[in-house]
Amino acid sequence: MKGKGKAAQQPQEKDCPLQFPDLTIVNHEEECKRYTAVLGRPTTESISIEELDPLQTDLELLLASVGRRLKLLESEIQILQNWQDKKDIKTPLIKGKVQVEPPSSNSAKRGKFAASTPDDRPTKKFKDSSGKSAAPPATVSSPVARAKTKIPQVKGHDGDSVHSPAELPRVVKNECVDRFWQAMEAYSRPVTEEDIKYLEEQIRKLEDEESLYLKIPPLGRHYREVWAEEDLLEEMTDGNKVNDKRRHTNHSNHTNSTATTNGTNGTTDASSLLKKAENSMEDSPYGPLTQRIVSALLEENIMTPMDDIITDFGENVEEASAISPRMLAKQLNIGNPAALERRIQRELEEQGILEPEDDEVEDDPNDEVLTELKQAQANLKPLIQWKIRHLKDLLKNAKDQQARQQPWKKFEECDAKLHEEYRKLNVARQKKKPNLKKERESVKKVLKEWWSVYQAVDDSYDQ
Amino acid sequence: MGRSKGKSQDTGGGGGGPSGPSSSSLPNNRASSLSPAPVISASSSTTSAQADTKIKDLKKELFGLIHNIQEERDRGQHNIVNIDKTHERMQQEARVTPYYKNKLRGLYNTAMQDAEAEAELLRKALDRITEIKSLKESKRQDSKQPKPIMRRGVLMTLLQQNATTLPLWVSKPGEKPPPLCGAVPADNNYVCNKNDKIAARVKSVDGEENWILASVVTFNSQTNKYEVDDIDAEEGKERHSISRRRIVPLPIYRANPETDPEALFPKGTLVLALYPQTTCFYRGLVDEPPKNHEDDYSVLFEDTSYPSGYSPPLMVAQRYVIACKEDKKK
Which InterPro entries match (chain A) (predicted)? Predict the structure, then answer.
């Protein structure tokens, strides 16, 4: 008999959920003095009153230990029962669960056997649940030890169908853990090349866009013109549609082609129409400079010189005023009014009368849109800078992290190797091979290597 | 002190009961029915003698039970040893075969049965003890009219003894601790019995309200009032008549932390606890609940004379720690 029983939890066996509690009973000789004394008396004697109290204490001690023993036994029996029950009923469930989990080749599990999934798949056929000896150790626990958990799980499993029932409570239990780590994956997964590329592209884009956003686009055509053009175009297309409908009923093929050509030429037609409209509004096709010079040469502001010119040519005077300036210009054969305007401008500039106009459009301080635009750009600039700076930082960190992951990768590979070796050892053991020396040696070797890699990882973390 | 040496002597009265010959000289187990009392002096009531006989019988029973218990334990010991051996063997092997599992199951079941039987006997024995004690107590209460004026120290020792010998409640598997076990509160319609110990909020002569340790005398169900006696039997502090709302019954059982931790006040709970060396209850916080069945609570009493507002932790037995309903601070 040992001393006062405490429920010493012995380390869990790799396959057995039983806890093997220490069920030893109280040594009443040591602990319950009064009790022992009473026991020692022959039946002829009895208990004295003052002994009642210490006796009560002793009995209570015994009762407490019995109570504890009962509790432990009950829990053990429960575990055993669950184990038995789950053996047959729940195997398909386990199987399904197992195949759902991705192969955990980089599990950080420090179990005692390999986690290599290709080996496990065939062994996870739990059809013959009684064939525990035949099946090589299967990683029934690979669904349990999740690939993403960096927390090493000490529970290794010498798995076969016998132990899969025990998996069910554990698998169920670990579902929450799995879900948690799945959620965390986005934050804690290792940095990949893709991430780095993405970051670099973002930086580049930003730097390009900088110029894009900060440029002030030149003043385009005035919106009045653009809108007028667009409106006209719209009306044209509408009209075409109506025409098409009408002509469609008349079955004329050529109208279709006309319609299409109309459509394609729509914009150009519209712009030309507008131009015509605009031009028809103008009195004269001549540029402003030309007009100014000519008017300066005139004595009066009436357009009489034109009339004179016309009469010089001996044209029909009565009809002169009726002729539009455009027709006049044609008759006068003056040529391109725009070119004339440009020539005059050049001459004046050479003479020094007229200062060369800036080709640039001067920023009109009254242009509110422009000021707004400038302001927005001013706001945007520091933001872009900030963003670029941070992206660069992030990129640097990502690259650092990548470097740090290297030892981890190595470690995981080594881990897998170790599992493999141990699995081989177990297979050999099961086959009852007489000499396990070779396997043991290989395990030892890999173990040494593993240990050194582990140290490296550990050190790298401490930095 | 109330407890007397010797076998069945009364403290105050009873005269010459069958105190001379020790009860152990009786060879047989007498039935616990009342046997004709031997010649007793007229002053002692028949009940006292009956109680004595009863006590004797109970003691006899107890004795027998104890022997039975030990037999049971010895028997169970064998099984436990088997279980241990099986454990060892199982742990040496790499795997758990069904053979072992079945064997273990069988062994566990047997062990459970043994343990249950042992527990039964133990409980019976403890019940006997409680009966004996209560008989003695009631005998003492009835017979002595004038209460012996106990010195303070004597009273305190008595209180302490009461606390340690409060019966322990060990739940069977699946059982829940009953009301008035440790921290489990009493039922709503619980009526205290005579001589039950309670905490009562009474107004003293100088107008102060205090929670005192008292003993129940009677209960009047019509007026819902209790008559209580202050156990500190000084003059002027004796009998009070108060409504049941001012009464909190003290626990009848101690809770076993190993089997029923939920029947203990957890750390940080506000409780009313008996201040050591006094007979008054004061507010405090539980610093540490008891760890095994013999332990006491460690309580921090509210005390404005300390800078933190609380006294250093003081030990108070389970019996004298009750839940505190939020009252205005004293």
Answer: Histone_AcTrfase_su3
